[in-house]
Specification:
globular; about 325 residues; 11 helices; TIM Barrel; alpha/beta
Length: about 325
C-alpha cells in the first residue's frame, strides 16, 4: 500500500488547511448495542465520566460493546490545552472525594477483570490529584479482589512525591503517554514537558521494579518516523514495558490538523522495531489508543511477572 503524501511540518498557519481524505483502512465502529446502552446508563447513574466519551475515542463502540471502559477522574475539565484533545479545558471545580468510591462501585457492577483509570490534568493542585488515584486503586481491590488496575496518570509536573502516592497503592500497570516527539512538544501539548514524562516513567520503575510501565505515541502530527523511533528508544531507556502507537485523528476543525496518515506497513514496521529493541508488548495500528487491549496485555504479561517475581501481579 503506497504512502500518502506528507504535508509540510505543522505551523499555526496550517490550522485552517483543508483536511486530508481519510484512507480506506481507517474504519470507526459506531457505538451501539445492548452492552453499550447498559454501560452508558451506569455511567450516568453514578455521575461518572469516561475518557472514551470525553476524548471522542474511535474505539468507543468496540470497547463499550465488549463491556470495558476507561474511567476519567478528577472531574471533566483539564487545566491544560493540548491541541489534539477534545476534553474540556479551563478552571476546574473542587475535587470530588467521593469519585473514587463511585468508580470502584462501577468497576464492581461491571465485574471487570482489569480496570483502566485516567484523569484530566489538575495543575491547580500541588499533588495533581494523586491521592484520588491511590484511593480508587485500593477501593477496587477491596470491592473486587483479583481485578487488576491500570492507571493512566498525568505527569504531575515531574513530582516524585505525587508519583509516590500513586505507586504506594501498587497498580499493576502505570501508564503515562509521551504523545509526540520532543520537537513538537510545545506545539502539540504546550504546558507539558518531555523531561516530566521521562521522570514519571523512569521514577515509577525505580519506585517499584515489579510494576508494568506503559506509554503511548500518536503519529501523523508532523513528526518524522525516525523521530518516533528515537522516542521509542528513550522509552525503553526509562524502562517502559508496553507501548501503544496510533494514528492521530482530528476531533474537530479547531484542533491540530492531521499532517499525514501512516500506512499499515509503517505501523507494522514500528511494532517490529519496538519488539526488536526490547518492549514486552507493542500495539501499533491506526485506531490503537492507550487502553486498547489493556486487559489482554496485563493477562499475558502477568505470566512473565510470575516467573520473574514468583507471584502473580494481578
Amino acid at each position: 500500500m503506497p504512502a500518502l503524501p506528507t504535508r509540510d511540518r505543522l505551523g499555526p498557519e496550517q490550522l485552517n488547511t483543508a483536511p486530508l481524505r481519510r484512507p480506506e483502512w481507517i474504519k470507526v465502529r459506531a457505538p451501539a448495542g445492548k452492552t453499550y446502552q447498559q454501560l452508558q446508563r451506569l455511567m450516568r447513574a453514578k455521575s461518572l465520566h469516561t475518557v472514551c466519551e470525553e476524548a471522542m475515542c474511535p474505539n468507543l463502540g468496540e470497547c463499550w460493546g465488549a463491556g470495558t471502559a476507561t474511567f476519567l477522574m478528577l472531574g471533566d475539565v483539564c487545566t491544560r490545552t493540548c491541541g489534539f484533545c477534545d476534553i474540556k479545558h479551563g478552571k476546574p471545580g473542587l475535587l470530588d472525594w467521593g469519585e473514587a468510591e463511585r468508580v470502584a462501585q462501577a468497576v464492581k457492577a461491571m465485574n471487570l477483570k482489569h480496570a483502566v483509570i485516567t484523569s484530566v490534568n489538575r495543575d491547580d493542585r500541588r499533588d495533581g490529584g494523586a491521592p484520588i488515584f491511590a484511593m480508587v486503586i485500593r477501593r477496587i481491590r477491596g470491592l473486587l479482589p483479583g481485578c487488576s488496575v491500570e492507571v493512566l496518570i498525568p505527569d504531575f509536573k515531574g513530582s516524585l512525591e505525587a508519583l509516590k502516592i500513586v505507586m504506594e497503592a501498587r497498580p499493576e500497570i502505570l501508564n503515562h503517554n509521551v504523545e509526540t516527539v520532543p520537537r513538537l512538544f510545545k506545539q502539540v501539548q504546550p504546558q507539558d514537558n518531555y523531561a516530566w514524562a521521562a521522570a514519571t516513567l523512569g521514577n515509577a520503575k525505580k519506585l517499584d521494579p515489579e510494576v508494568l510501565t506503559k506509554s503511548g505515541i500518536m503519529v501523523g502530527l508532523g513528526e518524522e518516523i525516525e523521530e518516533v523511533k528515537a522516542v521509542m528508544r528513550d522509552q525503553r531507556a526509562w524502562g517502559v514495558d508496553i507501548l501503544t502507537i496510533g494514528q492521530y485523528l482530528q476531533p474537530s476543525k479547531k484542533h491540530l490538523p492531521i499532517a499525514r496518515y501512516y500506512t499499515l506497513e509503517e505501523f507494522s514496521e514500528l511494532k517490529r522495531y519496538g519488539l526488536e529493541i526490547g518492549f514486552k508488548w507493542v500495539e501499533s495500528a491506526p485506531l490503537v489508543r492507550s487502553s486498547y487491549h489493556a486487559a489482554q496485555q496485563v493477562r499475558a504479561l502477568s505470566i512473565v511477572h510470575r516467573k520473574l517475581y514468583g507471584e502473580s501481579s494481578g
